[in-house]
Amino acid sequence: MKAYPYRRVDWRPGAVLKIPSAQARIAVVTTAGFSLPDQPAFDASIRGGDCSYRVIPAGTDLASLRISHTSDAFDIAGITVDKNLALPLDRLRELVRDGVVGSRSPCHFSFMGSIPAPGRLIAKTAPEVARMLAEDAADAVLLTPV
Amino acid sequence: MCHQSVGLIQSIIERAGIPTVSITLLPEVTRRVSPPRALFVDRPFGYPLGAPNDRQLQMRIIMTALAMLATSSQAPVLSNYQEE
User: The whole model's pTM is what?
Assistant: First the structure.
Protein backbone atom coordinates (compact mmCIF):
# COMPACT_ATOMS: atom_id res chain seq x y z
CA MET A 1 0.00 0.00 0.00
CA LYS A 2 2.83 2.38 0.84
CA ALA A 3 4.44 1.96 -2.55
CA TYR A 4 1.29 2.74 -4.48
CA PRO A 5 1.48 6.22 -6.04
CA TYR A 6 -1.85 7.65 -4.89
CA ARG A 7 -3.18 10.48 -7.01
CA ARG A 8 -4.20 13.87 -5.65
CA VAL A 9 -6.16 16.79 -7.02
CA ASP A 10 -5.43 20.25 -5.65
CA TRP A 11 -8.69 21.57 -4.20
CA ARG A 12 -7.31 24.71 -2.55
CA PRO A 13 -8.44 27.28 -1.49
CA GLY A 14 -11.45 25.09 -0.71
CA ALA A 15 -15.05 25.95 0.10
CA VAL A 16 -16.94 26.34 3.36
CA LEU A 17 -20.60 25.91 4.30
CA LYS A 18 -21.64 29.43 5.22
CA ILE A 19 -25.24 28.66 6.15
CA PRO A 20 -26.55 26.46 8.98
CA SER A 21 -27.00 22.81 7.98
CA ALA A 22 -30.69 23.30 8.82
CA GLN A 23 -30.88 25.47 5.69
CA ALA A 24 -28.46 23.49 3.52
CA ARG A 25 -29.24 21.32 0.51
CA ILE A 26 -27.18 18.15 0.86
CA ALA A 27 -26.15 15.62 -1.79
CA VAL A 28 -24.47 12.23 -1.44
CA VAL A 29 -21.84 10.69 -3.71
CA THR A 30 -20.91 7.07 -3.08
CA THR A 31 -18.49 4.64 -4.66
CA ALA A 32 -20.66 1.65 -3.75
CA GLY A 33 -21.42 0.96 -7.43
CA PHE A 34 -25.20 1.28 -7.10
CA SER A 35 -27.32 1.56 -10.23
CA LEU A 36 -31.03 1.76 -10.96
CA PRO A 37 -32.73 -1.21 -12.62
CA ASP A 38 -33.09 0.74 -15.89
CA GLN A 39 -29.46 1.90 -15.91
CA PRO A 40 -26.55 -0.13 -17.26
CA ALA A 41 -24.58 -1.91 -14.56
CA PHE A 42 -20.99 -0.87 -14.01
CA ASP A 43 -18.45 -2.83 -16.00
CA ALA A 44 -15.77 -4.34 -13.79
CA SER A 45 -13.97 -5.72 -16.85
CA ILE A 46 -12.86 -2.26 -18.09
CA ARG A 47 -9.10 -2.00 -17.80
CA GLY A 48 -8.12 0.70 -15.34
CA GLY A 49 -11.64 0.78 -13.91
CA ASP A 50 -15.10 1.93 -14.95
CA CYS A 51 -15.11 5.66 -14.14
CA SER A 52 -18.71 6.29 -15.25
CA TYR A 53 -21.42 7.34 -12.79
CA ARG A 54 -25.11 6.85 -12.28
CA VAL A 55 -27.57 9.56 -11.26
CA ILE A 56 -29.72 8.41 -8.34
CA PRO A 57 -32.78 10.66 -7.85
CA ALA A 58 -33.59 11.57 -4.24
CA GLY A 59 -36.90 9.73 -4.32
CA THR A 60 -35.40 6.40 -5.36
CA ASP A 61 -36.56 3.29 -3.52
CA LEU A 62 -33.19 2.09 -2.20
CA ALA A 63 -34.32 -1.52 -2.29
CA SER A 64 -34.54 -1.27 -6.09
CA LEU A 65 -30.84 -0.41 -6.52
CA ARG A 66 -28.48 -2.99 -7.92
CA ILE A 67 -24.92 -3.37 -6.65
CA SER A 68 -22.20 -3.84 -9.28
CA HIS A 69 -19.26 -3.15 -7.02
CA THR A 70 -18.32 -6.60 -5.83
CA SER A 71 -14.83 -7.06 -4.58
CA ASP A 72 -12.96 -9.31 -2.21
CA ALA A 73 -11.76 -6.10 -0.56
CA PHE A 74 -15.02 -5.41 1.25
CA ASP A 75 -17.95 -7.20 2.80
CA ILE A 76 -21.04 -6.64 0.67
CA ALA A 77 -23.44 -8.03 3.30
CA GLY A 78 -24.10 -4.67 4.98
CA ILE A 79 -25.09 -2.69 1.88
CA THR A 80 -27.08 -5.68 0.62
CA VAL A 81 -29.27 -5.46 3.70
CA ASP A 82 -29.43 -1.66 3.98
CA LYS A 83 -28.19 0.66 1.22
CA ASN A 84 -28.46 3.63 3.60
CA LEU A 85 -25.17 2.34 4.95
CA ALA A 86 -23.49 3.95 1.91
CA LEU A 87 -26.25 6.06 0.28
CA PRO A 88 -28.26 7.43 3.21
CA LEU A 89 -31.22 8.87 1.31
CA ASP A 90 -33.70 7.68 3.95
CA ARG A 91 -31.56 9.16 6.75
CA LEU A 92 -31.37 12.48 4.87
CA ARG A 93 -35.14 12.50 4.44
CA GLU A 94 -35.50 12.01 8.20
CA LEU A 95 -32.95 14.74 8.94
CA VAL A 96 -34.93 17.11 6.71
CA ARG A 97 -38.14 16.14 8.51
CA ASP A 98 -36.43 16.78 11.87
CA GLY A 99 -35.19 20.19 10.73
CA VAL A 100 -31.51 19.22 11.01
CA VAL A 101 -30.88 19.45 7.25
CA GLY A 102 -32.55 21.93 4.92
CA SER A 103 -33.27 19.66 1.96
CA ARG A 104 -32.08 16.71 -0.07
CA SER A 105 -30.53 17.62 -3.37
CA PRO A 106 -32.68 16.27 -6.23
CA CYS A 107 -29.88 14.04 -7.54
CA HIS A 108 -27.23 11.88 -5.90
CA PHE A 109 -24.40 10.03 -7.61
CA SER A 110 -22.91 6.56 -7.62
CA PHE A 111 -19.50 5.52 -8.92
CA MET A 112 -17.55 2.29 -8.85
CA GLY A 113 -14.86 2.16 -6.22
CA SER A 114 -12.03 0.38 -7.92
CA ILE A 115 -10.52 2.80 -10.45
CA PRO A 116 -6.77 2.11 -10.52
CA ALA A 117 -6.29 4.37 -13.57
CA PRO A 118 -8.33 7.47 -12.65
CA GLY A 119 -7.26 9.77 -15.51
CA ARG A 120 -10.70 9.95 -17.09
CA LEU A 121 -12.38 10.21 -13.69
CA ILE A 122 -10.28 13.31 -12.95
CA ALA A 123 -10.58 14.84 -16.42
CA LYS A 124 -14.19 14.09 -17.28
CA THR A 125 -16.64 12.20 -15.10
CA ALA A 126 -15.97 13.76 -11.68
CA PRO A 127 -16.04 17.32 -13.13
CA GLU A 128 -19.37 16.46 -14.83
CA VAL A 129 -20.82 15.42 -11.48
CA ALA A 130 -19.45 18.59 -9.85
CA ARG A 131 -21.21 20.66 -12.54
CA MET A 132 -24.51 18.85 -12.03
CA LEU A 133 -24.28 19.34 -8.26
CA ALA A 134 -23.71 23.05 -8.84
CA GLU A 135 -26.67 23.21 -11.26
CA ASP A 136 -28.82 21.57 -8.59
CA ALA A 137 -27.60 24.24 -6.13
CA ALA A 138 -26.26 21.63 -3.70
CA ASP A 139 -24.78 23.47 -0.71
CA ALA A 140 -22.62 20.57 0.46
CA VAL A 141 -21.75 16.99 -0.44
CA LEU A 142 -21.18 13.91 1.71
CA LEU A 143 -19.06 11.18 0.09
CA THR A 144 -18.87 7.54 1.13
CA PRO A 145 -16.50 4.75 0.08
CA VAL A 146 -17.13 1.09 0.71
CA MET B 1 -8.89 1.99 -4.49
CA CYS B 2 -12.32 3.06 -3.30
CA HIS B 3 -10.71 5.59 -0.99
CA GLN B 4 -8.57 7.05 -3.76
CA SER B 5 -11.68 7.40 -5.95
CA VAL B 6 -13.65 9.12 -3.18
CA GLY B 7 -10.80 11.49 -2.37
CA LEU B 8 -10.36 12.48 -6.01
CA ILE B 9 -14.07 13.01 -6.68
CA GLN B 10 -14.32 14.96 -3.41
CA SER B 11 -11.38 17.20 -4.28
CA ILE B 12 -12.88 17.94 -7.72
CA ILE B 13 -16.28 18.88 -6.21
CA GLU B 14 -14.61 21.08 -3.59
CA ARG B 15 -12.50 22.73 -6.30
CA ALA B 16 -15.79 23.58 -8.07
CA GLY B 17 -16.78 25.59 -4.99
CA ILE B 18 -19.04 23.16 -3.09
CA PRO B 19 -17.89 22.20 0.42
CA THR B 20 -17.37 18.46 0.86
CA VAL B 21 -16.79 15.91 3.59
CA SER B 22 -16.10 12.21 3.18
CA ILE B 23 -16.20 9.14 5.36
CA THR B 24 -13.02 7.11 5.44
CA LEU B 25 -12.46 3.57 6.61
CA LEU B 26 -8.82 3.71 5.59
CA PRO B 27 -7.14 6.86 6.92
CA GLU B 28 -3.68 5.87 5.64
CA VAL B 29 -4.93 6.13 2.06
CA THR B 30 -7.06 9.21 2.71
CA ARG B 31 -3.99 11.00 4.13
CA ARG B 32 -2.16 10.30 0.87
CA VAL B 33 -5.00 11.49 -1.36
CA SER B 34 -5.55 14.41 1.08
CA PRO B 35 -9.11 15.58 0.35
CA PRO B 36 -10.33 18.64 2.31
CA ARG B 37 -12.31 16.94 5.11
CA ALA B 38 -12.66 13.31 6.14
CA LEU B 39 -14.18 11.52 9.11
CA PHE B 40 -12.56 8.22 10.07
CA VAL B 41 -15.16 5.64 11.06
CA ASP B 42 -13.45 2.61 12.58
CA ARG B 43 -15.59 -0.05 10.92
CA PRO B 44 -14.87 -2.76 8.32
CA PHE B 45 -14.77 -2.03 4.58
CA GLY B 46 -18.34 -1.90 3.31
CA TYR B 47 -19.69 -0.18 6.47
CA PRO B 48 -19.04 3.55 6.04
CA LEU B 49 -22.04 4.65 8.12
CA GLY B 50 -21.42 2.10 10.83
CA ALA B 51 -24.00 -0.67 10.65
CA PRO B 52 -26.99 -1.68 8.50
CA ASN B 53 -30.42 -0.80 9.88
CA ASP B 54 -28.88 1.14 12.78
CA ARG B 55 -30.69 4.38 12.13
CA GLN B 56 -29.37 6.22 15.18
CA LEU B 57 -25.73 5.32 14.50
CA GLN B 58 -26.05 6.30 10.83
CA MET B 59 -27.62 9.62 11.88
CA ARG B 60 -24.85 10.37 14.38
CA ILE B 61 -22.11 9.67 11.84
CA ILE B 62 -23.81 11.80 9.17
CA MET B 63 -24.31 14.70 11.59
CA THR B 64 -20.72 14.51 12.82
CA ALA B 65 -19.51 14.60 9.23
CA LEU B 66 -21.80 17.50 8.26
CA ALA B 67 -20.59 19.50 11.26
CA MET B 68 -17.11 19.51 9.70
CA LEU B 69 -18.38 21.50 6.69
CA ALA B 70 -18.51 24.78 8.57
CA THR B 71 -14.75 24.98 8.87
CA SER B 72 -12.45 25.80 6.02
CA SER B 73 -8.79 25.15 6.08
CA GLN B 74 -5.89 25.30 3.70
CA ALA B 75 -4.79 21.93 5.08
CA PRO B 76 -6.79 18.71 4.93
CA VAL B 77 -8.73 17.84 8.09
CA LEU B 78 -9.01 14.20 9.20
CA SER B 79 -11.15 13.62 12.30
CA ASN B 80 -11.94 10.45 14.21
CA TYR B 81 -15.55 9.51 14.80
CA GLN B 82 -15.91 8.76 18.52
CA GLU B 83 -18.84 6.77 19.81
CA GLU B 84 -20.71 8.61 22.54
Answer: 0.96
